[in-house]
Automatic annotation (TrEMBL):
Signal peptide bounds: none
InterPro entries to which the protein is assigned, alphabetical: Cyclase_SnoaL-like, NTF2-like_dom_sf
Organism of provenance: Paractinoplanes globisporus
Name the UniProt record assigns to this protein: Ester cyclase
Source species taxonomy: Bacteria, Bacillati, Actinomycetota, Actinomycetes, Micromonosporales
Pfam family, one: SnoaL
Length: 171
């Protein structure tokens, strides 16, 4: 395992969860792409530290006390894998977007906490993150936050949150 590269990947996650987003310029390559941004606001779909910072703002708007507890890291060449648990508390609506950048769904805040496993994959270039993608337990997140199975009252709140998000998109 290349400890230095794994440390940079873990640091990028820590910065996104709770750090100073300006620090992303030190660990995220100017051409970096987040392959997970397809369901995120359009500002997250670009390249470089600004796009990664947009993802962090999107996550932090929905989830307080966001953290990543890293269990394992593995490196092979320029590829780093990080197995972790993401946890936090939903304090704002979680808004998902379609391929056109339009609001696809909005999950209003439940105030509940969650802890779900992730596997993050990073490609490194010049000592910085140049590519990122992940596998997440989205069903576990939805279950822990009370999004599924939805009650009739929560379905109504979802419809209302979606209307509000469409009026005020995070572009």
């Amino acid at each position: 395992m290349r400890t230095i590269d794994a440390g940079i990947c873990v640091r990028s996650m820590t910065i996104m969860a709770s750090g100073d987003l300006d620090d992303l310029t030190e660990v995220v390559h100017p051409e970096a792409v987040n392959r997970e941004a397809k369901d995120e606001p359009p500002a997250c779909r670009g390249r470089g530290p600004a796009a990664f910072a947009a993802t962090a703002r999107w996550l932090r708007a929905a989830f307080a006390d966001l953290s990543f507890d890293v269990h394992d890291t593995v490196a092979d060449g320029d590829l780093i894998a990080v197995h972790c648990t993401m946890s936090g508390r939903q304090v704002g609506p979680f808004v998902a977007y379609d391929e056109r950048g339009e609001v696809a769904q909005a999950f209003p805040s439940t105030g509940r906490t969650f802890a779900i496993t992730h596997s993050h994959w990073f490609r490194m270039k010049d000592g910085q993150v140049v590519e990122h993608w992940a596998n997440r337990d989205d069903l576990g997140l939805a279950t822990q936050l009370g999004w599924v199975p939805p009650t009739p009252a929560y379905l109504w709140r979802m419809a209302r949150a979606k209307r509000l998000a469409r009026r005020n998109p995070a572009h």
